[in-house]
Amino acid sequence: MPTASTTDGGDLLERLRAAGVVRLGIAGEIPFGYIDKDGELTGEAPELAKVIFKRLGVDRVQPVPTEFGSLIPGLNSQQFDVVAAGMYVNAERCEQVIFSDPDYQMLDSFIVRKGNPLGLRNYQDVVEKKAKFATGTGYAEIAYAVEAGYKESDILIVPDQVAGLNAVEAGRVDVFAGTALTTREVVKKSGKAEATEPFKPLVGGEPHVDGGAFAFRPTETKLRDAFNVELAKLKKSGELLRILKPFGFTEDEMTDLTAKELCGG
């Protein structure tokens, strides 16, 4: 009786075990979930999914690439079984899908010139020092800077962290804001710039931490709960960090946050 199965948490896990394969929605984003140059599925979320689903009795994962904005609609229209794209958990998304607990947290960091001559450690410093500020197209960091008192029309918007690094190196801006992960990775080859210590931006006056997780259809609580059990074991054993490390994640990105906290519940 399919109607009964949806009321008690869904039967997707049983169906995936029977099929031996789970379809993962990915958005082609490095380092979260993408197809590499050899045509293989990789990224922090797919690699973690491979381990967890194997433990749940599902041996294979199959990528279903789509646009980031189509991940939730695609999940809910059953084009794939789970979103494995490092998706940030927020209240708006929590109304449309259910999330596992986050497998990583993300803080912000700045790209500055070597030695951080202006002493920029957070958005308040940027405002106080009247620093020339840049960030990426559509980045959450725009709102964080505006909340600290930076005028939005004064922000230089660049395509990505590579363009941000170039702007800092060329002296067009004093600082570029991004996630701790992207800034740390992009400055590795730079002789002129460095990344600052990760920090929590203020949202509504409170320190804010983002967290990324896997998304499931709202009826599939059984699968989400089974996934969380395995995820918790990987966190406890330290294996989670080992899985995520090749993609630039460090101890700073490990988290005990829950989906409930990030959903605002």
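Second entry:
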Amino acid sequence: MKNTTLILGCGDIGTTLGRELLAAGHRVVGVRRHAGKLADTGIEGRAADLGDPAALAELPDADLLVYVVSADHFDEDAYRAAYPDGLKAVLAEYAGRRQAPKHVFFVSSTSVYAQQDGEVVDETSPADSAGFSGQLMREAEQALIEHALPGTVVRFSGIYGPGRDRLIRQVGEGRIAAATPAMYSNRIHRDDCAGVLAHLIGRALAGESLHELYLASDCEPTPLHEVMTWLARQLKVEATETIQSPLRRRASKRCDNARLLESGYRFRYPSFREGYAQVLREGGFLQPTT
């Protein structure tokens, strides 16, 4: 019998994950607002409003649930609907079924951390964000951790990859973050997001124990200035403007992924260099060599 994985919020990361799971022999059902976007992926698309109990009731039973929903807007109401309220509704629906899921995964964010002075953070660090986004993510995390269904939270840092190229375009315009003070940035390639989830799903299906929380970020937290300077060299452009680091509005911290590595995961793109090299190449950003 094939395992059925239900991906709730099956966008870019969910679709990439779904393709991996299909290749591993899963049946994959993807739920999103416009299911037509999953045509030709092999994923069974379902259109549903996760805020509608009737729509939830019509979703199929599943061995595994992956909740990777995105908020409609960056405001408190949208975040509450997408994260704590949406996840709680899904947990209530599936906990009441005759065939309950074997494991539930919730994709969270490092926005739950308040640290901003270059501190190292891991799964045991305080997560006391002052912003509504981090607070509501944390509420959703706790809803899963405290629920009777077996569940695991995966906190992703800054996601980049194909189509997520804002930083490259800034550098291409000659704009680079200041060198001082050092503002640490953390990132994970879209393909590693899918890889981490597929890895943890495999462990769950093999009956191996999982922690309730994993911090998923690559192996090299790096000052944003250094990342952008490296990109400038690849693009063969000179910096003409120093920009205010966007990290100043959030935080400067260093994410420690030791727990994830100890679980056996090996990063496809262990640092920004390998990952951005792929994005530059695939996105056609590099000048042809002569």
